């Protein structure tokens, strides 16, 4: 790889995730200052959607931090950042509904969610060990060790790719539930979609960067074995 190509590649690795983070933060900041028409807090939105779907065994609780919202399937808990939990903004409503989208996936045993959960141990190993195996294999000229690292990295990349349909599906469920439950009006749909789409960009960016890294190491492996 030439110096110019390497610099372009490195710039892409840096710029893509930074751009995605800036986009989600700016969109969230904008719509966190816009109140939703229902006046419901994020906690109330989450509870209502679950009640409407007959789910009564999942707790909703506040958690510190910004954009720290998540659903923990192990403890059956939706955790919303304090601004979203107590606030009644369009951003908070959308984020809360998205997290409950994961609850609905869990309740119906959504296949991609189950697959992603099964990949967690392997993906964690790949994320932590792959780079050391690849670099070690390259330095010691052990192609087998390098290949093992690439396989481990591929597992981590697969996890990133499987995350995409899980997150997009949760957002689609969120929009459907917010509309059918009367949480948002028709004129608020566009604003809610902007929040959800911006958040989705972070997952797309992470997956793209992971794929680029995997391709780079595969090319390194192929070139090393052709020499």
From TrEMBL:
Keyword Membrane attached: yes
Keywords: Membrane, Transmembrane, Transmembrane helix
Pfam families, per the entry: Zn_peptidase_2 (PF04298)
InterPro entries (UniProt xref): Zn_peptidase_2
Keyword Membrane set for record: yes
Membrane-traversing stretches: 6-22, 118-139, 145-168, 200-224
Protein name listed in UniProt: Zn-dependent protease
Organism listed in the record: Geomicrobium halophilum
């Amino acid at each position: 790889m030439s110096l110019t190509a390497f610099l372009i590649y490195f710039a892409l690795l840096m710029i893509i995730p930074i751009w995605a983070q800036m986009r989600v933060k700016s969109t969230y900041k904008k719509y966190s200052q816009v109140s939703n028409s229902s006046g419901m807090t994020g906690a109330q939105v989450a509870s209502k959607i679950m009640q409407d779907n007959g789910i009564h065994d999942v707790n909703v609780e506040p958690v510190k931090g910004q954009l720290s919202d998540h659903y923990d399937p192990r403890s059956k808990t939706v955790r919303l950042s304090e601004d979203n939990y107590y606030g009644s903004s369009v951003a908070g409503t959308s984020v809360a509904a998205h997290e409950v989208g994961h609850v609905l996936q869990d309740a119906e045993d959504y296949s991609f969610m189950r697959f992603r959960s099964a990949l967690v141990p392997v993906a964690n190993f790949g994320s932590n060990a792959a780079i050391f195996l690849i670099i070690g294999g390259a330095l010691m000229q052990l192609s087998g060790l390098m290949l093992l690292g690439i396989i481990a990295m591929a597992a981590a990349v697969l996890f990133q790719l499987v995350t995409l349909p899980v997150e997009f599906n949760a957002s689609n469920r969120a929009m459907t539930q917010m509309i059918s439950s009367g949480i948002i009006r028709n004129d608020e749909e566009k604003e809610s979609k902007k929040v959800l789409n911006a958040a989705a960009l972070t997952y797309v960016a992470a997956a793209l960067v992971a794929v680029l890294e995997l391709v780079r190491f595969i090319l390194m492996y192929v070139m090393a074995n052709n020499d």
